[in-house]
Each structure stands twice: as C-alpha cells, then as structure tokens.
Amino acid sequence: MFPKALVFIFLVKLVASSNHGFIFNGFRGANLSLNGLGDITPEGLLRLTNFTKEALGHAFYPLPLHLKNSSTGTVLSFSTTFVFVLQPQINYEQVCGHGIAFTISHSKNLPGALPSQYFGLFNSTNNESKENHIVAIEFDTVQNLDLGDINDNHVGIDINSLKSVNSTPVSYVDDKDGVLKNLTLVSGNPMQVWIDYSAMDMKLDVVISPLGVPKPKHSLLSTKLVNLSTVILDGMYVGFSASNGAATSSHYILGWSFSINGKAQDLDISQLPSVPQQGESKKKSSLLLIVALALVTAILLLLLCTGGIILILRRRKKYAEVLEEWEVEFGPHRFSYKDLFKATKGFKEENLLGAGGFGQVYEGLLPGSKMEIAVKKISHESRQGMREFVSEIVSMGRLRHRNLVQLLGYCRRQGELLLVYDLMPNGSLDKFLFSKTKPSLNWSQRFQVIKGVASGLLYLHEEWEQVVVHRDIKASNVLLDSEFNARLSDFGLARLYDHGSNPQTTRMVGTIGYLAPELSKTGKATTSTDVYAFGAFILEVACGRRPLEMRSTGESTPGLVDIVLDYWKKGVILNAKDPKVGSNYVEEEMELVLKLGLLCSHPEPTRRPSMRQVVRFLEGDAPLLVSPDSFSASASAVNCDDASDNIILSYPSISHTTSATDSVLEDISLMH
Ligand SMILES: *[C@@H]1O[C@H](CO)[C@@H](O)[C@H](O)[C@H]1NC(C)=O
Ligand SMILES: *[C@@H]1O[C@H](CO)[C@@H](O)[C@H](O)[C@H]1NC(C)=O
Ligand SMILES: *[C@@H]1O[C@H](CO)[C@@H](O)[C@H](O)[C@H]1NC(C)=O
Ligand SMILES: *[C@@H]1O[C@H](CO)[C@@H](O)[C@H](O)[C@H]1NC(C)=O
Ligand SMILES: *[C@@H]1O[C@H](CO)[C@@H](O)[C@H](O)[C@H]1NC(C)=O
Ligand SMILES: *[C@@H]1O[C@H](CO)[C@@H](O)[C@H](O)[C@H]1NC(C)=O
Ligand SMILES: *[C@@H]1O[C@H](CO)[C@@H](O)[C@H](O)[C@H]1NC(C)=O
To answer: Is residue 412 part of a domain?
Structure first.
C-alpha cells in the first residue's frame, strides 16, 4: 500500500505542476508519447508522418492535463500555439496526405483509429460517437464530400466527429496592409497557428499566419458556444494527429507551447529546427516530366542555397570565432567554438566549475568523442602578440607529465580565449583542505600530492626542452584526478595574462603569501620564485592553513612560515601540523615537509633548493640537514606590504635562462 500511495502523490504533483503549461522550441530530447509514424528527428523536428501511404502518426504530451475545474466541474480556458510544415511529395503537386489535427483526447493511443480521411482519430464505426471524447482542430488538405468538407484547404473544428462544427478556407489578414491573403497548407512552408479557448463565453478562436508574421488580430475561425463540458473529462491528453491515404505528405511540428488559464508562451522562432529538403523522388519516364523536375530541382536548389546561406549566417554569428591564416599550422590544437559551446551546453551556469583570477572554468562533454573536458574562458582584449601567444599555448600543449593537467587545445573568439583541458573529476586541492563540504585528505594522500606537485614542477623547470616558470603555485591551482593524483594547472597562464591585460591596468601576477620577497624588487619570476611558492604550498598542505590569513579586523595574523618556525625553535615542530590529519601519519615525513617548506620559503633566493633537490629530499634520496637558526636573522619571509602593491610581471614564463642554483646543496650542508 505504502509505495502505491507514494507513486500516487508523485504523479499528482507532476500533473499539478504541468497544469501551468509547457513549451517546446524544437523537440530535441522532448519526452512525448509517440505512436504510429510519430518520431522526433535528430534535428529536433516532431515528424508525425513521412511519405508512407495509409499511415498515421500521433504525438501527445505524456501527462494527462486537468482541463476542468475540479471543484465546479466547468471546463477551463486554454491556449496553444504551434508551428507546422506540411510537405507535399515532390511531383505529386495535385495530391497529398490528409493533414494535421491539434487534438485533445481522453486517450493518447487512440486504439482502432484509422489513417486516411479518419485523420488518425476515428474509424468507420466510431466516427460520430459521443464516447470518443475528442476535440480536434483539423488542418485538412483533402476534400471529402461525405464528411461535408468545404474544400481541400480548410480549417475545421471537430467535436467527436469528422463532420466539422464549423470550418473555413485557410487565409489570414495581414495587419500591415489589412489585406486578406490565402494560404496553402501543403506548401512545405512553416506556418504558425494560435488556438484559444475562452471558458467564459465558450469561444474558440483559430488564427494562422506564415511563420514570422506576427499573430494577426483578426481570427480566421471564431466560434461561439462551443460547449465542451461533456466532451472534456478529467485528465485529457493534448497533442497532434496526422494521416496519409493513397497520396502522402510529410507532416511536421517545429515548436509548440500550451497553457491552461493563460496565454500560451511565445515560441522562440530562432530556436526552431527547419525541415530538411526532400531527397530524390520517383522518376517518371516522360521527358516533359524530367524537364519539369529539373526546373523544380533548380528552383529548390536555389532556395536551399539561400536558406543555407541564411542558416550559415545565423549560425556564424552564434558560433563566431576568430581564425587567422597563421593559425592553420596549429589546426590540430584548435577547437571549434561550436563544439565547445555544445560541450558546455552553451556555457551554462550549471556547467560552471569555478572562477579564478584568470577566468571562468566550465566542464563539458565533447560531442562526438564524448571526452570530458574543462574549458577555461579568458577575456582577452589585446590582439598584440597573439601569434607568439598561441604558439606558446600550442607548445604548452606538448608538455606532458602525469602531474600536469593536460592542455588539449584552444579556441579564439572576439575578445575571448578559450583553453581546453582534461577534466579533473575531483576538482581543486584547496577544497579538500579548507572546505567543510569535502572530506579531509589523510596524510598519505597529502604526502603523495606534495611529491606529485614537486615532480610536475621539476619537469617544468628542468626536464622539458624549455624552462617553464609556473608563477602561481598554490593549492587552488592543484587539481586532483580520479585517483587523487595531484595535477598542476594553469602553468604559463601568467604569461597569457600579461599579453591580455591592458597596459594601463596593472594586475598582480601570483598570489599574496606565495610571492617571493625579491619579486617586489626585481619583478622577475624565476624558478627560484616558484620554489618559494612551492614552499608556501607544502606548508599549506601540511598545516591546513593558508600562508597568510586575515583576521576579521583586516589585519593579518602571523604568516604560516613564522608559526612553523616558532614551533621548530621551541622543539615542537610537529605541533604545526593540520589537526585534521589526526594521529595517523609518519612523523619523519611530516617533519621533512615542514622543514622543507621553510627552506623553500627562505627569504634568500640563493638558500632555496632547486626542484631537483626538493624531489630528492622528498624521495629520501638525500638527507635534509637544516637548523632553525639559519632563518634567525632573516626578516619575516612574507612581506605583505611589498606584495600588495600591484606588480606587473612581464617576464616571460618560457625562457632560456638556466635554472636553479647548483650551489644550494653546499649551502645546506653548511647549515647544521
Ligand atoms: C516520459 O514521461 C513519462 C510520464 O511522465 C515518464 O513515465 C517517462 O519515464 C518519461 N520518459 C523519459 C525518457 O523521460
Ligand atoms: C517512413 O518511416 C518508417 C518508420 O520510420 C520507415 O520504415 C519508412 O521507410 C519511411 N518511409 C519513407 C517513404 O520515408
Ligand atoms: C475553480 O473554481 C473556483 C470557484 O469558482 C475558483 O475559485 C477556482 O479558482 C477555480 N480553479 C481554477 C483552477 O480555475
Ligand atoms: C473503432 O475504434 C474503437 C475504439 O476507439 C474500437 O473499439 C473499434 O473496434 C474500432 N472499429 C473498427 C472497425 O476498427
Ligand atoms: C460514420 O459513422 C456512421 C454511423 O456510425 C456511418 O454510417 C458512416 O458511414 C461513417 N462515415 C464514414 C466516412 O466512415
Ligand atoms: C482565396 O480563396 C478563396 C476561396 O478559397 C477565393 O474565393 C479567393 O478568390 C481567393 N483569393 C485570392 C486572392 O486568391
Ligand atoms: C453545456 O452542456 C452541458 C451538458 O450538456 C449543459 O448542462 C450546460 O447547460 C451547457 N452550457 C451552456 C452554457 O449551454
């Protein structure tokens, strides 16, 4: 009993929420109840029939709607609008399928219904039965004298029967010039219909116009006293039915909205899919026909070209990107904006992973390859140096290391640069250190992360063909892959940023607390300033604190370096560790990391080790021999006043300078 009750409540909720109405600007991914030939094409068209003979197609909104006031039992007002195309079969101009009907029905399957003149709604026994509970607005393209059809191009209101209550030839009054214009339903042209039922005066209005012409004020068919109270039951389905007989048309719906007790939402015409042109049709042997066919094809081709050009122009605007000739050589590294747009669902908020100093990052799924990516969007005004810039990105794409986030490629738009990376499922390390929503990392994970970052940085500094200075090492720039391996991200971005920033606005590159003191004097980023930041970073990981923390009053607390150094001098360096690590850790490793952090953060650049030495210390290949006294005379390692000035670091991140100092090791051996 209990689960049933739950299901019931759930359904009622769905139904209640659907009562406000719905809208489909194209049907891609739409959940409709389809029947017969009814189908949703990959372009997002709702196709009710193709050119199959004696066939029908149904499509209904999957949930029943309450079109009656549950307390008074009176029928509610409703309003709908939709766009359709009735495509005639080429070279059968005179004959076509039967047409399309907007349908309100008690059943969404319409069992026993027949195609042809029965419109997919009725059959020969129930064509006039009150048991049907069907209201249909038919767009009828075949004249059937038995049913009293007025012509082969009319709109009719059908209640439980194919004999229309009221009908009229299809036309519209153009509000621009007040002239009545005839419309041919089976023209292959999209047309928009508005159907409004006012419960108060039981008035049903139908208006039609070619797509793009605003809703005409003058109703095509306005019928009063359409009493639906016995036809409409509680829980009705709304949708469409279409049918073909011996002759055929393709029946399409492009967009549809429906609303109860209110005006149907306007469709967004720009989003509607378009109907594909017909393929080759059956050949007739007559020469005349072939000539006629050739002519028609030529005209169609012309139309297709114009249509295509309009389409291309429209798409080009949406997906516009900047692609210059010199970029051809970078082709394989270039992503199309369209793919990135699709991958990130149009850079939707829900795909936003985060926003940092360099721009927003979105997650995405590449169409086609189904590869998970992260797309970084950097606003980029200056066009100067674009070429070196892109070639740098591309060369950074060649950097390959298990502790670097792989840069896959780029795309350029006006004022925007997009960088495409491998997606790191676990996000950034700082969340695991500081956010209360993520579990804290244990010591072995943290030590693994530290070793990983060291290894990645060694690769950047010494093992690649050029020296790459990262310039912004910190926990939020370290990402974790699915196995919690550390991956450095954003390498080289500092350089991109320099190019992109407006020379008038000075922006600081790097982050306070990680900036080596000499940076504020020389402004030169070197491998040694990277080592400084790495020192701050590993202290951050071991202590679970940021290098500099601000009090609520705005003043800064003692820097992390000073805190750790203080504990060390008191002989209790392990007290500096992050309490969240607990007791499950290796003391020697913790001690090594804390001391190494201090050494890397040494205010004297020459006293800092190189990354190669750092890696050797971490791997236990060399002992770290250092005493707290070697830091004694030095000023506080982090000078906030210096660092908080805006610094422009225009020194290139990729340069051919020789890196770290080989003499540090001697320095260290002197230190005990
Ligand atoms: C479509 O809607 C129906 C009715 O709400 C639901 O039962 C069904 O699971 C939906 N199908 C999909 C694929 O969402
Ligand atoms: C129409 O669609 C049906 C079902 O998808 C398919 O089997 C048939 O070949 C199609 N016919 C034409 C003429 O396209
Ligand atoms: C149903 O009718 C009652 C009484 O006239 C009215 O108060 C209520 O708003 C109506 N409900 C809807 C959904 O129209
Ligand atoms: C007509 O449809 C009804 C159900 O709507 C069904 O019971 C009946 O058998 C059908 N008649 C024929 C001749 O198919
Ligand atoms: C409609 O139904 C009536 C009575 O049930 C029947 O006499 C008539 O032939 C049917 N019309 C068509 C077109 O099937
Ligand atoms: C429009 O159609 C009606 C009847 O269908 C016809 O009488 C009228 O002449 C047509 N008007 C034009 C301008 O074609
Ligand atoms: C509508 O039809 C119902 C049932 O036949 C009837 O009771 C009601 O009076 C009618 N309403 C109007 C306004 O004619």
So the answer is: no
